[in-house]
Specification:
Elements (H helix, E strand, L loop, with lengths): L5 H7 L2 H14 L3 H13 L5 E5 L5 H8 L4 E6 L5 H11 L5 E5 L12 E7 L8 H11 E10 L3 H16 L11 H10 L2 E8 L3 E8 L11
Parallel strand pairs: 1-2, 1-4, 2-3, 4-5
Antiparallel strand pairs: 5-7, 6-7
Helix pairs in contact: 6-8
Length: 223
């Protein structure tokens, strides 16, 4: 289960942040970690594939994948703060009829979400206490690939997260951030029939694309 109530998430991921994210995407496009996921997914082929994104925010990654040839996308969001800016962005790009947006806790009610060829979780696992449950649900829904981004497990990032959580505790904000173990997350995916296909590390974020066994090219080297 998540550590937080929807109000806890809403206190951090509110309407002002959603509008800010939408403005930033219009000006600058995707952040670097999301660009990496997009580029690797597109390079692996997205034509006519379906996308399921968990916690996609205003939906920038979905917009990019649909523009690159994906057929349709579903977004599952824990709170409704992003719905207005996301729908406006989809209307601007002429993509409203190809995206379905839902509100709910994906890990606990994932059976209500559709399967997809690609499941994306960009900077989402760090916002959820039960990373294993969230990854297991993602793998159950992915026919081909799972792409995700998590904070690197370094001492300085763990210290920064501790300070951020302490500040939220003092402010009585019911939200916590996590630096999960990547090896534990990947073991969950392996148990569901996935292998690590590609990986990249920046100063703060670590990006991974998982491939379901029997799909893709298992001899391709990780990047």
């Amino acid at each position: 289960m998540s550590c937080c109530s929807p109000s806890g998430y809403g206190a951090v991921f509110g309407a002002k942040l959603a509008e800010k994210d939408a403005r930033r995407y219009r000006r600058k496009g995707l952040p670097a970690s999301a660009e990496w996921l997009r580029d690797r997914l597109v390079a692996g082929g997205v034509d006519s594939q379906t996308v399921l994104e968990v916690g996609g925010g205003v939906g920038g990654i979905q917009v990019e994948l649909l523009t690159a040839g994906a057929a349709a996308s579903t977004n599952v969001e824990f709170v409704d703060s992003y719905e207005g800016p996301a729908r406006t962005l989809l209307e601007e790009r002429g993509l409203s009829d190809r995206v379905e947006r839902r509100i709910g806790d994906f890990a606990e009610s994932h059976d209500e979400a559709p399967e997809a060829d690609i499941v994306v979780m960009h900077r989402v696992l760090c916002c959820y206490a039960d990373a294993d449950g969230l990854m297991a649900a993602a793998c159950l829904h992915a026919r081909d690939r799972v792409a995700f981004t998590i904070p690197r497990r370094t001492w300085w990032i763990r210290a920064a997260m501790w300070l951020a959580n302490a500040w939220m505790w003092l402010r009585r904000i019911a939200f916590r951030a996590y630096v999960h173990r990547p090896d534990a997350i990947e073991r969950v995916a392996q148990a569901q029939g996935f292998r690590v296909d590609q990986r990249s590390q920046g100063w703060f974020w670590e990006n991974t694309v998982l491939q379901r066994n029997g799909y893709g090219d298992p001899t391709r080297a990780m990047q």
